[in-house]
Design a protein that fits this description.
single chain, alpha/beta, five-stranded parallel beta sheet, 11 helices
């Protein structure tokens, strides 16, 4: 299967460099380019793409709002956000908007390729430890958990709540399996059910959800 990619960056040189790397892959093809978020949203009305490689800061419409509009339209395409600085607050906002992950703009080509393949397969491109650091830094931006938490989590079983809590604490599937004394395959099944019941795209959004509802508190929070 060929992964169709839309490149979105206001720097033509950056897009050209990415296109050279991506088009050289046997399983990838760049189906279009856009110089800003508004152009990206417009391009997707007539171009089918599986993954959008999106810059954060752009004129006319930034990557965050473009991501929100794209993700609100359906499951595909998935958005891989590019950011200049690790733990950039803009990248965090993009994850909340529906992006499946973020990478630094100067990542080695192999990391970019891995990221695109990962989001295409439905995974999130944010390491558990990075997710935890990101949430710990930006949790003040989230609304405080309230009584809505119980209502929002009402459809989860006790074990599914445990899994969601451990995801939010930054544990990988293998680590969750060790903690709960179950196989990694069983953990994957639980994670899938949690995402489906909560209407979430991936485990990054699950982490954000857990903090927003107050199921998990940031380090140092009262």
């Amino acid at each position: 299967m060929t992964i169709r990619i839309l490149l979105v960056d206001d720097q033509e040189l950056v897009r050209t460099g990415f296109r050279m790397v991506l088009d050289a892959q046997p399983d990838m093809t760049v189906v279009g380019e856009a110089g800003d978020g508004l152009a990206a949203v417009a391009a997707l009305r007539c171009t089918s793409a599986d993954v959008v490689v999106m810059d954060v800061r752009m004129p006319k419409l930034d990557g965050i709002e473009a991501t929100r509009r794209i993700c609100a339209a359906g499951d595909r395409p998935r958005v891989l956000m590019l950011t200049t600085f690790d733990l950039d607050e803009y990248a965090f906002a993009a994850l909340k908007a529906g992006a499946s992950g973020f990478l630094l703009k100067d990542v080695p080509p192999e990391e970019l390729l891995f990221g695109i393949r990962s989001v295409h397969s439905g995974d999130a491109v944010v390491a558990p430890s990075t997710t935890r650091r990101l949430i710990d830094r930006f949790v003040p931006m989230l609304p405080s958990g309230s009584g809505e938490s119980e209502a929002n989590l009402g459809g989860l079983t006790g074990r599914e709540r445990e899994v969601l809590t451990l995801i939010a604490q930054g544990l990988s599937n293998a680590e969750i399996g060790d903690r709960l004394f179950v196989s990694e395959a069983t953990v994957k099944t639980h994670v899938g059910r949690v995402l489906a019941k909560l209407g979430l795209r991936d485990r990054v959004q699950a982490v954000v959800f857990a903090y927003e509802t107050g199921l998990v508190k940031a380090r140092g929070a009262n």
